[in-house]
Structure to design on (202 residues):
């Protein structure tokens, strides 16, 4: 096994969070090799070679060459940058031109630079303060609710997360396909005449 993947597995084992490693689909992997202009020796390349995706606490999802198909997920997001992960709210993590990770946030529909590269981002997801990062958007019983999601589903809220409300508990929520959540976000941006956030295609 690749040394970098071995380190990833060790980090997963040491994580206090619930982590699911999805199996590789060789058909998807072959398509990724053909279509993605990646450095396959990079961490992202190693993850694609060895996983079908990684699910952390049921909330964060790293894309891979399998059920969390990085190619299919990127069809949902009209960015020049490669989408590499998501959360169940419809937030999307991007690999920016400078090598850092950016977060397209579902509460403001803008890309925010996170100021760390994919390796540190994965470490943060596995060991970092994700509870604090999402503290305003986790409701009572969220762990049970996300455990019932399929990998192609998330939670839609009304009022929308980018609209004002008293708090997450005041918003109605329902389980819907992730494609619907992400599609709605970009439809809203198009209606505003933005065509997407700063990194989006015109």
């Amino acid at each position: 096994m690749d040394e970098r993947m071995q380190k990833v597995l060790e980090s997963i084992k040491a994580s206090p969070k619930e982590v699911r490693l999805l199996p590789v689909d060789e058909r998807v992997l072959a398509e990724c090799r053909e279509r993605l202009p990646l450095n396959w020796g990079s961490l992202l390349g190693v993850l694609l070679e060895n996983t079908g995706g990684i699910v952390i606490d049921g909330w964060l999802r790293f894309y891979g060459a399998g059920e969390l198909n990085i190619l299919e997920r990127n069809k949902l997001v009209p960015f020049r940058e490669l989408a590499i992960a998501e959360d169940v709210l419809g937030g999307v993590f991007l690999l920016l031109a400078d090598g850092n990770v950016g977060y397209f946030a579902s509460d403001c529909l803008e890309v925010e630079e996170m100021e760390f590269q994919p390796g540190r981002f994965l470490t943060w997801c596995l060991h970092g303060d994700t509870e604090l990062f999402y503290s305003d958007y986790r409701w009572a019983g969220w762990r049970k609710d996300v455990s019932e999601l399929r990998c192609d589903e998330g939670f839609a809220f009304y009022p929308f997360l980018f609209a004002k409300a008293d708090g997450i508990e005041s918003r109605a929520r329902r389980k819907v396909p992730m494609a619907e959540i992400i599609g709605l976000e970009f439809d809203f941006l198009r209606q505003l005449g933005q065509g997407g956030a700063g990194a989006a295609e015109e």
